Predict the 3D structure of the following.
Amino acid sequence: MINRLPAWFKQDIPNTGALARMRLLSQFNIHTICQEAKCPNVSDCFHNLRFTFMILGDTCTRNCRFCAVRKSGRVSNLRMDLDEPYRIARVVRELGFNYVVITSVTRDDLSDGGAGQFAQTIELIHGIDRKIKIEALIPDFSDNITSLKTVVAARPSILAHNLETVKRLYSVVRPQANYAVSLEILSQSKKFNPALFTKSSLMLGLGETEGEVIETMQDLIESQCDILTLGQYLAPSEEHYPVQEFISIEQFKKYEELGLALGFKAVLSGPKVRSSYRAEEVCREILTSYP
């Protein structure tokens, strides 16, 4: 286990603009994965109006060992907040978003996994302005294809689903998830809408080898994934899965070059990169290069 962070993980203290936006979200009882997952970029992203809304509440029904989001083994205690999509749409309007990223906790207690809430949130934001681009970062919906169709039919600009780690580590890091199912979500999304851009993300430093990372990239390419992000895993606490290695900046650069050579349309690779990092710029680049 490695505890000391490299110098490049120094974080800025949130400025007044970022703090004001955090207060607004708290006022509207809206959650972000940025805050719940303790993202190292939270100050900079909030300052620049780049954050990821987290729908379906703040409590997940799964127990991934890398994640800081609150977890519950008693799904009967969870509820559905039907007003949540409307509050998010109001904040999008008030803050003047041009690009919105929406993710969620995993809700295995819901028959559709929360797909309907995703679709309604997307549709309400489109109702504000069809020019607003939306990226939907979805869970696996317990391999419910109908739920996937529901989100794709709402027409997000980008459909994201994260593998998070290499296949070998799933049983340890993501014991309630399935590597093959996650790949299938990406490939099925293309079948439902061939024009849809898809995206996935990997955390590095969990104990994976370079060969396993390359093999995972190849699996993603075979699943028609368009965009890949690679970032350094940081353990949220001593109770979470420990960091096994800090990946060098040079190695991140190598992975970026390998990913582009394999055929990804865009690759973001660096220590502080997260799934939604620079999402708007990547989407703009993709839409310009592949209209």
